Batch of 3 targets.
Target 1
Amino acid sequence: MDQPTWQAGVYAALKAAGVTQLGYVPDAGHAHLIEAAHADPAMRTVLLTTEEEGIALAAGAWLGGQRAVILMQSSGVGNCINMLSLPLSCRMPFLMLVTMRGEWGEFNPWQVPMGTATGPVLTATGAQVRRADRPDEAAEVVAACAAMAFNSQVAVAVLFSQRLIGAKVFVK
Amino acid sequence: MSLPNDGTLDRREVVAALLRDPGELMVVTGLGSATYDVGATGDRPLNFYLWGAMGGAAMIGLGLALAQPARRVLVVTGDGEMLMGMGSLATIAAAGAANLAIAVLDNARYGETGSQHSHTGLTTDLAAVAAACGWRATTTARGMAEVEALRPRLRSEPLFAVLRISAEEKPRHLPPRDGAYLTDRFRRALGVAGG
C-alpha cells in the first residue's frame, strides 16, 4: 500500500512523544498508522471492539506509567462521550486521532450527522479539539497535541480532515 | 423479585476474602457497589475506584496490565458494569494480558438504581461469554470455599471469575471519589508519577 509521508510523520511524532500503547478500531484513513504500529516491536497495539474501550485503555496505561494513543473514525467519537468523563474527571492525559467522515465529498449520508457533530460534542465535554487539514501540517499538529495532552494532562482530539484523508470512493 | 440464579454469597465477605493481604496487587473497581465493597476492605493507594465511566473497568485493567507486566491487576466489578463493557472481554482475550484477572460480583441486579434485574438473571452467563471470547480460564463460584480457592488464582492467572452474591443491600461505604487524587496517589504508589 501507499506510505504517504505525512502519516509517517504522524507516527514519528507519536514515537517522539513517548507513546507505547496504541488502541484502534480499524479505519482505512488510519491504515498506515496501524500497520506501522504492528511492525514496531516497541508499540503495543490493542484492537478494540468499540471506541470507548480505548479511552479506558489509555486511562489504565496512564495509571501504570505509560502513554497511549487511540485511533478512530469520526463515527466512533459518538461512542465515546460518557467515557471521556474518565480522563476529564481524573485529570489524565488523553490523545485521540480521528479521521473525519461526512464533511468533504462524502458519498454515504449515514456518515454526515456524526461528522457534523464530532467537533462540537468533543468541545462540549471539555476536550481540546485541533484539526489537521494539510499534509504538511499533520505531523506538527499531532506533536503539539501530544505535548499538550501529556504535559498539561488534558484530553486532546486531533481531527484529520476528510479532505486530507481523501473521500472514500464507492464503486458499484 | 426472585430470579432463577439468585446467589447466596455475602458480597462484603467475598470481597474481603479476595483482597485479604493484598500486598502490591493493583485493584480497579467498577462503579457502584463494587467500589463500596472494595473501599470497605480498607482504602489503599493501589485501589482505583470508578465512580462513573460505566463499562470501562476491565479496559482500565488491560491498559494497566500492559503498562506494568511484572505486577498483577485485579478488576472487581458488578454484573451490570461488566455487561456494559462486554466487548472488552473479546478485546482483552485477544490482547492476551497474562497478569490481569476479573472478578464479577453477580447479583443479577442493578443495585445502584433500585435492584432492577439484569441480563445475568434472565439469559446471560458472563463466564460463558468470557469463555466464548477466548478467555481460557473462567469459573463461577457459589460458596465461600470456592471463593477462598479463587484468591490465589486471581493473583496468578488470567482468570475470569463470576461470584454469585445475594441481592442483599449493604450499608454504603464511600471511598475517595476525586479522580485526580485517586490517579495521582496510584501513580505515586507505583513510582511512575514523574511520567
Target 2
Amino acid sequence: MPSHVASNLVVLAILTALVAAGLGVRRSRFWREAARSLARRRPLALGVVALLATIALLDSISWVGGGAGAGASGDVVSLHKPRSVIDRMFPADFQERSYSAPLAVTEFYGGTPLRYPRRHLLGTDILGRDVLHLTLKGTRVAFLIGGLTSAIVIPLALAFGISAGYFGGRWDDFVFFLMSTLASMPSLLLLIALIMALGRGPLQVCAALGVTSWVGFCRVTRGETLKLRELDYVQAARALGVSEARIILRHVLPNLTHLVVITFVLLFSGLVLSEAILSWLGIGIDGSWGQMIDQARDELSRDPIIWWNLGAASVALFTLILAVNLVGDAVRDILDPRTLRERL
Amino acid sequence: MSELVLEVRDLVTTFPANGQRVSVVDRVDLRVERGRVLALVGESGCGKSMTALSILRLVPRPGRIEGGSVRLEGRELLALSVPEMRRLRGHDVAMIFQEPMTSLNPVHTVGSQVVEAIRLHERVSVAEARRRTVELFDRARIPDPEARFAAYPHELSGGMKQRVMVAMSLATRPKLLIADEPTTALDVTIQAQILELLRELQQQFGMAVLLITHDLGIVNELADRVAVMYAGQLVEEGGLVEVLRGARHPYTQGLLRAMPALGRRGEPLAEIPGVVPSPEDWPKGCRFASRCPRVLPVCHDVDPEATRLSPSHTTRCHAVAREEAE
C-alpha cells in the first residue's frame, strides 16, 4: 500500500475515534461537564490546538495528480507525487533557487528576480522552499510525534502499571525492576542509542521516545491501582461475584481515565520538545520544526542575518507548546480529584 | 425449628506474624436460620470482619482459611471451585459494607451499578434489569427512584448511598445477607432508618442475616441471637435475651457494663482494664485471662472449652464451667 493511502486511512481512523469519543463524552454527564468547563476556561488555547490539529490532519490527507500543474516559470512538476491538502494551497512549483526575505521581490543574495515575487510571506530557506509552507507541514510532524508516541506509551504504561498494581507478587517485582532500570539510565543517552539501533524513521524515533517516557506514567498507574484495589467498591464488587477481569475493566480502568487524559496532554508537549532536542543533535524526524531550528544555527551567523526560518519554526513550536500546556493545566484542574472537590 | 441457612463449624483463618501463623479466626461456630438475624459482636480487630470474609472466601492475602467448614443450605463452600464460588457471591450470599461513602464506584451512576449486579447473575435484558432496579430503589425507600437511577454516588447522601447498597445486595434475593457494620458510618437518625429498612426487607424476603456490629443497641434492635467474639474466638453465644440479660462470660458482662445508658448519667462508664492483645501475643491459655476479673490459675495455661448453659446458650470460660459443675 502506498504510504499516502495509509496516511489517509489513519486520518479516517482518527476522525472516527474523535467522533466516537465525542459521542462518549456526550453520553456521560461527568465528561460532558468537564468538556464544557474546559471550553469555558481556555477558549483561546483550545482553539489554537484545534486549529493546529486541523492543519495537521489536512496535511495528512493526500492524493496524486490534479491541481496546479506547471507553475508560472513553466518548470515541469512531477504530478505523480501525492500532495496533501496543505500542499495544494500553494502552487506546485512554489520554490525559488535560494534564500529570499519575506515578501521580497529579488533573491536575498545576488538580486535575481524571484519566480513568485511578493508571494513568500515568510520568505524561503536555503533551498528556496517557502517557509510558511514548511512551517505548516511541520505541524503534522509535531502531532505525529506527540500522538504516535502517546499511542505507544499510554497502553504500555497502563498494561504494565495496572497488572503490576492489581496482581502484585512476582510480576510486580519484575515490572518495578524494569521501571527502576530504565529510570536509572540517562534518558537522552538511551534515546540516542535506541535511535542509532532502530533507525531514523518517524516510527522508530517515536518508538524510542516511547521506551524512554513510559516509566513515569506507569509508576503513577501502578500506585493508583494499588490504592484502588483496596477500595471498598472493589471489595464490594468482589463480594458481588464480579470477575477479576471485569473489575479491572469496569472499576479500575475508568477510575484511571482522568490520569490518562492529564498524562496525554502533559506528555504531548514534552515529547514535541524532546524531538526538537533530538533534531538539534541531528537525529530528529525530517520536516520537523526542530530541524528548521537546527538549520538556523548556520543562518544566524550569516551577515545580514537570516531570521525568518528560525523565527517561523520557533513561534510555531512555542504557540503549540504553550497552547497544549494551558489546555493541559486546565484539564488537570478540572479532572484531578484533589481539585475536583472544590468544583463540586 | 426452621431451616438452617448458614452453618459454620470450626472455622480457622490464619495470618502470618513473627514467622508463624496466628489464627485471627479460631474455631468459630455459627448457625443462622432462615428469616433470623445473628449478631456477631466484638471490639475492633477481634476477627468479626475476617469471619465474614472467610465465609465469602475473600480473605485478603497473605491470610488463609486453614480449616473447618462453611455450609450454605448444606453446600460446603470451602470445597467449591473458584468460578463456582464467584457465581455464589452476590447471588446466594450478599454483603453490605461499613462505608457507604466508598462502597460505590464514583465513575458510574448508581443505577448502572445495580444493573451490573443483577445482570452478573441473571440473564435478563438491560431494560428488565433497569425496571427491577427502579423497583428495588422504591422498596429501599429511595425517593424518586427513576431520577436517582442516573445519579452519581457523590450526588447522594450517606444514608441514600447505604439504601442503594441495600438495594444492590438484595437485587438477586440472596439467601444470606452479611451486613458488616452497616450503620457505623451514618448519623444516628439515619441509622435508625436503615435498621428499620433492613428489618423490613429481611422479613419480606425471609433472608438469614449475619449482622456484624460493635453496637449493642443495634443488636438489641435487630438480632434474634448473639455471638460475642474476643481475639478471634467466640466467647459466648445465645439468644438475644440470654446474652443481653443473662451474660455469663466476664467479657460479655464487661461489654454490657461499658455501654452508656441514659439512666446512669454522671457516673463514670465501666471499662474493661487493659487492651486486646495483638494476635502475635495471644497466650496459650484463655485469651481474655490477662484482663479478666475472675481469672483462675488454670486460665493462663488451658484454653477453655465451650460450656453449655442451656440448649441455646454456650460460653467459653473456666470460671463459668466450674460454677456450673458445682
Target 3
Amino acid sequence: MSDTSDNRGRPVRKVRPFLEELEAKPFWANLREHKLTAQRCNACGKYFTYPPQGSCPYCLSPDFTWVDLSGKGKVYSFVTYHRAWHPAYQDKVPYNVSLVDLAEGPRLISNVVNCPPDQVKIGMNVEVVYEDNEEFTLPKFKPA
Amino acid sequence: MSNISGKYAIVGVAETKVGKRPDASTHSLHLECIKACLDDAGIKASDVDGFITNQPLNDAHRSYAVRMANMARMQPNYATDLALGGATPIAMVQNAVMAIEAGMANTVLCVHARKRGTPDPSPGNPIRHGDEHWEEPWGHFSAVANHAFAAQRHMYEFGTSSEDLAHVAVATRKHACLNNNATMRKPMTIADHQASRFICEPLRLFDCALESDGGGAVIVTSAERARDFPKRPVAILGMGQHHPHFSLMDAPSLTTLGGKKSSELAYKMAGLVPKDMDFAEIYDCFTITTMITLEDYGFCKKGEGKDFVKNGRIEIGGELPVNTHGGLLSQAHIEGMLHVTEAVRQLRGNEVEPERQVKTAKAGIVSGHGGSLCMHASLILGAL
C-alpha cells in the first residue's frame, strides 16, 4: 500500500467530497462558514435525509430551503476500524466511524472525535465540531 | 396475477473450481461456467435464447450480458445484466422466470463469476457502489463496516455477543470441510474465532467472507420442458425481493432487513412456511448477516438468532442445516451464486459429497443480500 495504490495494487481515489455536486454544493459551502445545514421541504415541512437531492424524498416537491441545524445528535451505531482501506487512514487506526442521528432527524456517517474509540456508546449525546482543511470542512462530532 | 409456483425449473447447474485462480480472468471464468452448465444440461449454446449476467465489480461496462453471449456465440432473444450485489444471482433466476413467463425466451442461462481472489490480469473500471463521497471523507470504506454497524446494533438491542456470532462461522466451516470444492478446509473452533483479529470492531477476521475467484451458473426453463433434460429438475416454488433503503443514512432498521418482506413474498408464492424448509442457503458475507436473515426468514424470533445458531441446529443433521457448502465464509465468495447452485444440487439428491447431503431434502430457501444491507432477494426451490 502506498499513497497512490491500495492493498490490491490498484490506483486509489483521493478521499475528497464532490464539492461541486449540484445538489450538495450549498451543504459544503455552508460548512465552510461552520454551519451544519440540511434541506427542509417547503411543502410538507420535513427535513430531507443526506445525501442532498433535488426534491423532497417524502412528497417529491422540488421546493425546499437550506436551514441551519442545532448540531446536536445521538450515536445510532458505531464501529472501530482496526484496518485501513485507504493509505490516508493507515496511521489513524484504530479509529471510530459512527452513524449520528441529528436532533432534527437526518443521519450522517461521521466520526466521534475527542473520545477514545472504546468509550463511544450507542445513544451517546454528541455535538458537531468543524474540521477544516485547505479545500473543505468536514462536520465531525464530540461528546456533548 | 397468476401464481407461477412450480411452473419453472432449473435444469442445468455448474460451478467452477474456486479459490485462487491466477490462470483465469473475469471473462474466462464466465466462459468456463457457460461450458460446464451447457454440458450439465446436455444442450448447446445455440439452444439458449435468454442470457443473464451480473455487472462485474472490477470491469464495469455497457451490457456485460451481450458481450459474454457473443463470446460464446449465443444470439439471445432476451439479455440483461443485473447489479443487485449479493442479491443478483437470485434476481437472475427470477428474471429468467419472468422472461419465459412473458414469452420472450424458453431456455435462460444465468451466469455469475467473480475475480476477487487474485488480481484480474485484464482489469477494467471498477463499478461504483454509489455514495462513496458521503462516506470516504470520514474514513468509511467497507462492507465490513456497514455490517459491523448492524452487529453493534444487534448486540445493543438483543445482547448478542461476538462469541454468539462465532457459532455461525464454526458451523459453516464444518460444512466447508466436507466440500471438496471449498477454499477453507481446516476445522475452526469458537476459540479460533475469538482469537482472530478485529477487522472492523465488533467484527473479526473470521466473521468475514473470503475474497475469491470462481463462478457458477444455472439454466432455467419451464417445468414442462424440464423433463426432457438429462438431470433431475428442481422446481422454482417461491420468489421475492425487497429493497428498503439505499444508504445506511436512510436505513429504517439495521436489525430487521429486506429479507423479512422478501421471504414473506416467497413463502406466500410457494404456499409454504419456514418449518417446511429442509435446509437454508443464507447469504453470509458476514456472520451477522446470516443471524439477522435467519430471524427475518422466520426460523426464530427477532433477537433469538444467537440461541438458534447453537447446539448443532444449523449443521448437517441438525434442525435446519444452513450453508451446506461452506458459504461465502468458508467455501468461496461468488456473491451468492454458489448458494443457488448448492440448493439445486442438494435437491437433486445425488451430487454433493454424501457426508453433507441433507437427508430427504424436499424444499429449501436461498437468500441473497447486497449493498449497504439494502438489497434482498429470496428463492424457494423444491425437488420435482
